[in-house]
Amino acid sequence: MSASYEVRDGVAVITLNNPPVNGLGYETRRGIADGVDRALADPAVKAVVLTGAGRAFSGGADIREFGSPKAIQEPNLLSLLKQMDNATKPVVAAVHGTVMGGGLELALSCHYRVAAPGTNVALPEVKIGLVPGAGGTQRLPRVVGVETALNMIVKGDPVKSEVLAGLPGQQLFQKIVDGDLLAGAIAFAQEIADARPLPRVRDLPLTHPNADAFFQFARNTVKAMAPQFPAPARCVDCVEQAVANARSGSFDAGMTYEREAFMALMMTPECKALRHAFFAERAASKIPDVADDTPVRAIQTVGVIGAGTMGGGITMNFLNAGIPVTILEMKQEALDRGIATIRKNYESQVKKGKLKQDKYEQRMALLSTTLDYAGLKDADLIIEAVFEEMGVKEKVFRTLDEVAKSGAILASNTSTLDVNQIASFTKRPQDVVGMHFFSPANVMKLLEVVRGEKTAKDVLATVMGIAKVIRKTAVVSGVCDGFIGNRMIEQYSRQAGFLLEEGCTPEQVDKAIEKFGFAMGPFRMGDLAGNDIGWAIRKRRYVEKPNMRYSKTADLLCEMGRYGQKTGAGWYDYAPGQRKPIPSPVVVEMIGQHRKDLGITPRKISADEIVHRLVFSLVNEAAKILEEGIASKASDIDMVYLTGYGFPLFRGGPMCYADTVGLFNVVQQMKRFAQNPHDDASFWQPAPLLAKLAAEGKSFNP
Ligand code: NAI
Question: Which stretches make up the 3-hydroxyacyl-CoA dehydrogenase NAD binding domain (predicted)?
Answer without folding.
Answer: 301-477
